[in-house]
Amino acid sequence: MMHGLGLTLIVLSGAYFGLLPVCRMQRQLLLLSAWEDCLRSMAADLHSGGLPVRELLEQAGKRHDLLRPLFREMCSQLDWLGITAFSEVWASCVAEQSQLLPREALGLVRLPGDVLGKYAPEDQLAVLYRSADGLHDLYGELHGTLKTTARVYLSCGLAAGMITGIALL
Question: What is the rounded distance in angstroms from the CA atom of residue 106 to the CA atom of residue 28?
Fold first, then answer.
């Protein structure tokens, strides 16, 4: 009985390790979607009302639960450092998510921080839309990759667990 339970746990642990990269890619998909939606809503707010940067950040934090802590941190740092250091505030807060986002997405997410509050509204809108479109494309690529590789990761993890279990017999 105990021997069978031990083997089952070994096989399941292999399957678990196969699920880890799949869960990471799903988390990246959620973040990409949240950032895309956030940038598009910021562009809509900027287009409709020409809101100041702080209000754009507050609105973005209210609308996007996944990014709420990030935007709260941006607002608090902005209060402390002032608008002149906004690009550094944006970059430092985005850097906290560097482990969670794909490398290609980091540049797209950092880009609005260099333009918001500094240039004409049309230029700010263009950058927000360009970044959102790039994130949308990355989302499509990652979603396709997830669909094709999820079974492979799970199967490899399960096979590794089975092989380990058989070797221990």
Answer: 12
As for how many domains the chain has, the answer is 1
**CA distances from residue 58 to 37, 49, 61 in whole angstroms, order as listed:** 15, 14, 5
Q: Which residues contact 39 (CB under 8 A, 6 or more apart)?
A: 112, 128, 129, 131, 132, 135
The torsion region of residue 52 among left (phi > 0), alpha (psi -120 to 50) and beta comes to: beta
Please state, in angstroms and as integers, the Cα–Cα distance from residue 14 to each residue in 1, 2, 19, 31, following that order. Answer: 20, 19, 9, 27
Give the Cα separation of 83 and 61 in Å (integer): 18
Domain that holds residue 91: 2-168
pLDDT digits (tens, 9 = 90+) for 81-128: 665 578 888 888 888 887 888 888 988 999 898 888 788 888 889 999
